[in-house]
Amino acid sequence: MFIKTLLLKDFRNYQQISLSPQNGLNILYGKNAQGKTNLVEAVYYLSTGKSFRTNRDVQLIRFDAESARISAAYQTLSGGNTIEAVLKKDGTKSFNINAMPIKKLGHLFGHFSCVAFTPEDIKAVKETPALRRRLIDLEIAKIRPAYFFDLKSYYQVLSEKNALLKKRIGEDEKRLISVYNEQMAVHAKTIIRLRTAFLEELKEAFNQTYRLISGEDKTAGIIYRASVEPENIENAFLSKAGSLMSREIEYRQSLFGPHKEDFVFMLDEHDLKLYGSQGQQRTVMLAYKLAVLNMVKERTGESPVLILDDVFSELDFSRQNRLTELLAASQVFITTAVPINIKQTYHAFVVENGQIKSG
Ligand SMILES: Nc1ncnc2c1ncn2[C@@H]1O[C@H](COP(=O)(O)OP(=O)(O)OP(=O)(O)O)[C@@H](O)[C@H]1O
Ligand SMILES: [Mg+2]
Prior knowledge:
Elements: E1 2-11, E2 14-19, E3 25-29, H1 36-48, E4 67-76, E5 79-88, E6 93-97, E7 100-101, E8 114-117, H2 119-126, H3 129-143, H4 145-165, H5 171-214, E9 220-225, H6 233-251, E10 262-267, E11 270-271, H7 272-275, H8 278-300, E12 305-309, H9 317-326, E13 332-336, E14 347-352, E15 355-358
This protein binds adenosine-5'-triphosphate and magnesium ion (MG).
């Protein structure tokens, strides 16, 4: 799929702009702090209803404005569509697809589809498991909208259980903890199953893409550290919950489950965060994102829009060229503050202080 026109009103530093990108490579070039990331942030917002750099939507509304609007006309294989997001200062937001309101955020997934690769994603290799879970969860939710709702329900029960664990625990509370555990086990089963299936499906394309972009003869992989063995999940979860109950009461919090799981990115047998060079870390994460893009494309027949924010110019020239060759069939937005020199044809836009010109 590809965006034909994008309109922004009072979004970040944009007062009002309209942009017609091409179905192919679009390079957004400009000095620092001009609005390059803001623009791709708006595109991404349309696909997930969230920014990739803040959880606070009010930050997206232009200083002094009351509301922000992002809208796009996009083309899919089955025809033309429109999508619109409106964010208000009071924290409310609404979405329309083809002028029909979307009632739940989870229902936004699967319409306008976008994969973004940002400096934050590279941080995920090195930093907390929470960032890596987010990286994986968001992508699964795009392919399997039900995942989003299971995850949400799991976290809801988890927070109720954690609130209970802060109180004095008698026999009644213990029974209630068991009830929570049973509910969590049901959601954990779906979450762990889908995480396992997602990584299995991704494996081949992930490794191949890594080899293609890097030109290295190394195997890239992801090890899933699940909280229970991915067989007989519900029973395994319940028996672990039973044996950990007294410790959870002692520590006054839930000690295991999908909210504690981790994903370790590997290159050959080595943990990427400990042994990978910066370029390798960047390329592995890029390969992960492209493998996701490929998976969505295989499942839906539609290639998602790809965003590369500030990550392209850090790759060496041969990696840049191999990458852009791979991307020939997708609409891509690349932001950069330094000029780019690649063989493929592209359309250039110059971003300057919230204004955009064709360059
Ligand atoms: N809500 C907002 N209202 C108005 N301006 C904003 C808002 N949020 C951010 N900005 C401005 O947007 C600018 C940053 O834009 P952006 O992050 O897109 O820069 P960039 O072109 O990607 O720069 P870099 O090359 O440094 O990454 C800053 O000048 C910032 O003050
Ligand atoms: Mg930027």
